[in-house]
């Protein structure tokens, strides 16, 4: 496609300055014209209600482990080990406290009101080698739904921003765009642009739009390739931004939809059942210092342009997970970053199988670990730094738990039956490990396991309290069956994900590059050779643990982990198997929302138009 044909699909330029910011100097350019958001007392109390219990739980558990280690005299190695355990437990306790706070506050819903002026909003869908019938179908459904309710004030324009490199996919995109133009009402504004070079990936794609067309729009609703939002959800976010002139970004809570495989259905069930409590709690204690997840969020265009221009990292490296950083830069400039989980009708899809999830997770790991370099960025709000740290810790915890697992296995069941006893008994750094079966140790491990499952149980209890939510999944019997199934699946898959994330962290630290390819929307099918190649490490570790447990050298508490790792290949194969829609049922799986049904209709239409017009090689 030539530059001239690219611009033929776009409106006249309306440029907006987009200065590059710096991390070692204050905000460049004009700050927010509104007063810097003040942390209100309710948010302060919410933070106390979350962080205080998390710290207390962490402290108590560390005391238990320190007393247990001190039975034969506390060495510095044991002290470091207890500290690592405490570090890991804190984040688990924080999730527990957040879910509990959210569950207690779910009944208190503050209605959204519209008090501001009408906004001109651009819907931006960046795409990269995606199936055009899926992306253009979703986009058409959203624009059609918005057109039907246009009397409510705001105006909306769609921009399909392509970075596609595959020429065959690019031709299909042109056909899909032509189909939208011919099928949508003539007064629905839709545009398409494909960049000649995908400089700086998605960051550069959005920057190109801001600098050429951003000045024509008050706000931009950033979507992902699999995003789908109802008209009421889009309007609710727009109303919220219009009503809060100090808000720079408002993030919705995307729910999962469209799952067909066992792994995806488990993810969708967990999101639907446990997500509301966690999201509500997060919104309460983040306040105006929220975060950005890169999609399904509305952003004030001038605020973004004035404060979120991303610089390169040292060595000219691109910031990969840009969303957290952009939120931090906007908050630094005095703009509020809010999270509105009460806005329903915001959807996204999830990878269909375990390996597809791992591929996406590896990319995110590479991006999130970059954030550790930005923790000392000048002028960042404390909570913005916490979000950056939290994103990185989410991956660093896997090698931490993996290391603790190895240590636990080597300790054995007693000093006489320790695997370590077979290696240099006189090694000076080797502590005299206490027996694993002591009452304090058992209680501590039960507490850790309880904290891991507690957010799920809290979320399930909150869902049960809303009788309508249980009825929408087929009744209480179907709900409990789904709950037990999801918990069992999470126990089985968690150790495999721990090993895979540990591998991803090691690869990132060693500088191994990972391709940021499109998500496998229709993946899930892998032959056993590929699965064995992907999961050989888990299989070996699991077999070693099982052997140690049978021999009495390794604690039986590690049996669930050993079973999971040993069966990693089979579990990975099972994850991609299609399942019945009533297994792990959610309201959206039993009855698709209207916007989803409209999107499927549009997807079929676009697919037929592409198949009819597209001739490979021409």
Short note summarizing the structure:
This protein has helices at residues 3-8, 41-69, 76-105, 132-148, 167-183, 201-213, 231-243, 262-286, 301-307, 322-332, 354-370, 382-411, 439-465, 467-471, 476-509, 528-534, 536-550, 559-566, 568-575, 587-590, 594-613; strands spanning 120-127, 155-162, 190-194, 219-222, 228-229, 247-252, 255-256, 297-300, 336-340, 346-348. By secondary structure, the protein is of the alpha/beta class.
Give me the secondary-structure topology.
Blueprint: H1 3-8, H2 41-69, H3 76-105, E1 120-127, H4 132-148, E2 155-162, H5 167-183, E3 190-194, H6 201-213, E4 219-222, E5 228-229, H7 231-243, E6 247-252, E7 255-256, H8 262-286, E8 297-300, H9 301-307, H10 322-332, E9 336-340, E10 346-348, H11 354-370, H12 382-411, H13 439-465, H14 467-471, H15 476-509, H16 528-534, H17 536-550, H18 559-566, H19 568-575, H20 587-590, H21 594-613
Parallel strand pairs: 1-2, 1-4, 2-3, 6-9, 7-10
Antiparallel strand pairs: 4-8, 5-10, 6-8
Helix pairs in contact: 2-3, 2-8, 2-13, 3-8, 3-12, 3-13, 4-5, 4-7, 4-21, 5-21, 8-13, 8-15, 9-10, 10-12, 11-12, 11-15, 12-15, 15-18, 16-19, 17-18
In words, what does this structure look like?
This protein is α/β, with parallel strands linked by helices. 56% of the residues lie in helices and 8% in strands. The chain has 21 helices and ten strands. It has helices spanning 3-8, 41-69, 76-105, 132-148, 167-183, 201-213, 231-243, 262-286, 301-307, 322-332, 354-370, 382-411, 439-465, 467-471, 476-509, 528-534, 536-550, 559-566, 568-575, 587-590, 594-613; strands at residues 120-127, 155-162, 190-194, 219-222, 228-229, 247-252, 255-256, 297-300, 336-340, 346-348. The chain has a seven-stranded mixed sheet with strand order 3-2-1-4-8-6-9, with helices on both faces. A three-stranded mixed sheet has the order 5-10-7. The chain is globular. 49% of the residues are buried. Residues 1-7, 420-425 and 427-431 have low confidence and may be disordered.
């Amino acid at each position: 496609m030539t530059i001239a044909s690219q611009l033929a699909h776009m409106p006249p330029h309306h440029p907006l300055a987009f200065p590059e910011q710096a991390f070692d100097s204050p905000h460049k350019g004009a700050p927010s014209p509104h007063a810097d958001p003040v942390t209100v007392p309710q948010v302060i109390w919410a933070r106390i209600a979350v962080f205080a219990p998390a710290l207390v739980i962490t402290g108590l558990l560390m005391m238990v482990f320190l007393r247990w280690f001190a039975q034969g005299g506390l060495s510095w190695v044991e002290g470091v080990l207890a500290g690592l355990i405490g570090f890991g437990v804190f984040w688990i306790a924080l999730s527990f406290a957040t879910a509990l706070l959210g569950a207690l506050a779910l009944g208190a819903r503050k209605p959204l009101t519209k008090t501001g002026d009408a906004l001109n909003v651009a819907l931006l869908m960046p795409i990269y080698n995606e199936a055009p019938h899926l992306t253009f179908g979703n986009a058409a459904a959203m624009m059609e739904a918005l057109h039907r309710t246009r009397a409510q004030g705001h105006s909306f324009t769609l921009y399909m921003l392509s970075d596609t490199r595959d020429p065959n996919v690019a031709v299909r995109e042109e056909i899909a765009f032509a189909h939208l133009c011919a099928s949508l009402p003539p007064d629905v504004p839709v545009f398409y642009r494909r960049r000649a070079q995908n400089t700086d990936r998605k960051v550069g794609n959005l920057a190109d739009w801001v600098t050429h067309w951003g000045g024509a729009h008050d706000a931009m609703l950033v979507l992902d390739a699999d995003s789908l939002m109802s008209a009421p959800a889009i309007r609710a976010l727009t109303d919220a931004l219009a009503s809060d002139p100090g808000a720079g970004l408002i993030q919705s809570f995307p729910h999962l939809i469209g799952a067909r495989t066992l792994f995806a259905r488990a993810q969708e069930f967990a999101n639907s059942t446990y997500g509301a409590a966690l999201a509500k709690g997060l919104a309460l204690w983040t306040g105006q210092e929220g975060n950005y997840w890169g999609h399904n969020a509305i952003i004030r265009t001038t605020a973004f342009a004035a404060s979120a221009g991303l610089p390169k990292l040292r060595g000219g490296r691109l910031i990969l997970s840009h969303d957290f950083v952009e939120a931090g830069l906007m908050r630094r400039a005095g703009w509020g970053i809010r999270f509105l989980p009460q806005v329903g009708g915001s959807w996204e899809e999830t990878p269909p199988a375990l390996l597809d999830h791992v591929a996406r997770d590896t990319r995110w790991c590479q991006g999130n670990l970059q954030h550790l370099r930005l923790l000392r960025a000048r002028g960042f709000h404390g909570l913005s730094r916490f979000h950056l740290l939290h994103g990185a810790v989410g991956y660093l915890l896997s090698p931490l738990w993996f290391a603790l697992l190895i240590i636990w296995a080597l300790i054995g069941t007693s000093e006489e039956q320790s695997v370590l006893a077979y290696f240099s008994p006189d090694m000076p750094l080797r502590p005299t490990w206490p027996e694993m079966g002591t009452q304090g140790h058992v209680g501590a491990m039960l507490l850790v396991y309880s904290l891991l499952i507690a957010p799920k149980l809290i979320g399930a209890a909150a869902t049960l309290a809303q009788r309508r939510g249980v009825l929408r999944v087929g009744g209480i019997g179907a709900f409990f069956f789904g709950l037990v199934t999801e918990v069992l699946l999470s126990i089985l898959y968690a150790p495999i994900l721990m090993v895979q994330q540990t591998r991803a962290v090691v690869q990132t630290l060693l500088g191994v590059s990972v391709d940021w390819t499109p998500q496998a929307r229709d993946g899930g099918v892998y032959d056993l050779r590929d699965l064995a190649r992907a999961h050989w490490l888990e299989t070996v570790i699991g077999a070693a643990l099982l052997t140690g447990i049978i021999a009495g050298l390794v604690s039986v508490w590690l049996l669930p982990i050993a079973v999971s790792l040993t069966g990693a290949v089979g579990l990975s194969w099972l994850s991609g198997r299609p399942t019945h829609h009533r297994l792990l049922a959610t309201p959206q799986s039993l009855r698709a929302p209207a916007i989803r049904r409209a999107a499927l209709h549009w997807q079929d239409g676009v697919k037929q138009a592409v198949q009819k017009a597209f001739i490979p090689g021409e």
